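Case study B.
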Amino acid sequence: MRHPLLSAIVLALGLVLLGAHAAPVGAAPATDPADLGPPRGTPIEEAMLAPPAVPPPIHRDYPARVIVRLETREVVKEIADGVRYDFWTFNGSVPGPMIRVRQGDTVELHLKNAADSHMAHNIDLHAVMGPGGGAALSMTPPGHESVFTFKAMREGLYIYHCATPPVPMHIANGMYGLILVEPPQGLPKADREYYVVQGDFYTTGAYHVPGLQTFDMQKLLLEQPTYVLFNGREGSLTGANALTAKVGDTVRLFVGDGGPNLVSSFHVIGQIFDSVNVEGGTLINHNVQTTLIPAGGAVTVEMKTLVPGTFLLVDHSITRAFMQGALGQLVVSGPAAPAIYNKVSSGPIPTAANRSRRLPRRLQPRRSMTPWPTARAYSRRSAPPAIRATAWACRARSRRWRCRITSTPIRRVPSASCSTGSAARSPSTTPATSR
Ligand SMILES: [Cu+2]
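Model:
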């Protein structure tokens, strides 16, 4: 694929596939009631932020020209602890920066392809109404730049991705992101906004095999990913990278599914979505537990954080969450709300049989309060940092119990980390459990 002649043939084939059609001669331009007229004012440079950051809300009441600058870069970085992968990216991150414009804006998109790239790249934005979504207009060899414009005609949340053949390979290597087209009146205020995109990755080595891993075409064809991830790296949204909020916040998540293959059953354990913009469009559903995100699609979900603690973001095709990496955390801090969520008690059921016999040691309640049945497994290096921390804290607590007998408690371990009271749990180290 790196031979120049072969690259040129693939490029030409791609242009044909992507529909580089000429406009019909003599036809009157189409008009549309959603067209809010030509751009006004000074052109605006779009903020290009790395995920999970979201560009600020738009308060304009007129259409503008918005300049978006993207660069396709091929970068080797970690996909999991100790595992490196040759990602193909927009602006070096997976997903690429989120783009935020207002309906009616004219987007002037500059797509550079870094000089040290091995491949041509382009961009297909699902917010574009035009053949190929911009792909044919933006096919860019290494060391070149393409510029094209499109008008954001329809509000919604849309995926963008590279559409250079072989398209699945470019997407599987991380070339996708989201573009939000706000309605003319803007979005309601939210206290927190975050940007998350799920993707499936296909490496030659099995899950967590260390070292530099290469792309596995056979796994791609079989749709059997090695990793299913939020924001391109296991741990990108856990531990020190967790999303945060305070009790009482309205949290808005812009969630996409870059694919290339898997559909996401997006769920936040312990939360209910107050509203979901179904498939990223204008249909709003309420009180949703799990929302489907098609490959190449997106949703906006909003939820109110009523209770403190750690809430897990998962693909509820749950093997992907706990065995392939599709796991994030929303850590909510603030006062406990026992009227909404409270632990009352736990222990052996007081039956006559239980009262008359002492349980064998292996059946007695364990002092460790980790809710994971495989806590030992989560204490390994493979576990996401926060879960690992929980397992560690609970193991340490066991030592603390022993140490307490000898009056030498381990001070580094806050007792709240393993407290039996839900209200006293440390939000940063206590994972929620699925019900
Ligand atoms: Cu590409």
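Residues 19 and 131 are 6 Å apart (CA to CA). The remaining cases will be described in the next quarterly update.
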